[in-house]
Amino acid sequence: MNPPLGSAVAAVCAGFGRDVDENLAQIADLIEQARAEGVSLLALPEACLGGYLSVLGAGRDGSHDEQPEDLPPVMDIDGPELRRVAALAGDMTVVVGLCESDGSDRYNTAAIVSGDGVLGLHRKVHQPLGESMFYAAGSEFGCVDTPAGRVGALICYDKAFPEAARSLAVDGAEVIACISAWPASRTATGDSIAEDRWTKRFNLFDAARALENQVVWLAANQHGTFGKLRFVANAKVVGPGGDVLATTGIHPGMAVAEIDVPSALETARRAMFHLRDRRPDAYGAVTAATLQEPAHA
Length: 297
Known about the structure:
By secondary structure, this protein is an alpha/beta fold. The protein has a single domain (8-288), classed as Carbon-nitrogen hydrolase (Nitrilase/N-carbamoyl-D-aminoacid amidohydrolase, 4-Layer Sandwich). Helix content is 22%, strand content 27%. The chain contains six helices and 15 strands. Helix 1 (20-36) runs parallel beside helix 2 (80-89). It is globular, with a radius of gyration of 18 Å.
């Protein structure tokens, strides 16, 4: 019999490639490890069920039109892969990344699953350099009620946009799981992953999104290399005050934090509650205005 789940949450940093059976075996091991640590909500990396794109982003010549060697396998939401993850999850809630299709378009998707099946989906809305050549973009954000609380999901570049996380927060998110395949810079690389400028951005976004929305934030990420990409790792759990509660740093592993989510949110929001103190009437231009290009001399 499995031990009862506790109040821990966790985010994974691990490498996943094209071998789906191997990925499922690794996911099974990670879920078993998480269950042993009392984890009720586990975030796995973007594209962990079939691997990411092997090329993305600006190359050293400034272009971003390189073609990947192959594309991730397409999976159905009611297909055997997600059924297998759901069976493994049992009473745990797991956020897992895959390439999904609606029959005509491919989507970079995060599925929120438990033993009851697929509870919710998020199709990546914001697409970085070149990704739109291979995936259609999602168009909405929303939360789902899970055994681990009310959860919203984002994917990678989505977290660079405050509106994305805020949309989930106003929809009642207690926890936001942002799953990523976030690479290091390919143009102005640092001496180490820890010092890479894209690593610093990854970590900065995580802290800022958690703090401004006063939510618990799970950041999962790929590890190692895939094609020409080198991932920045740094899976973490961030508290509603923007404090990092657990992190893998530049290493593979699982960041686990014991936290009573409702109590943590109540404490963080007791004095200054950012969502309550918003002034939406003053922000209309944010979504209504057309972006003005900077003037060039």
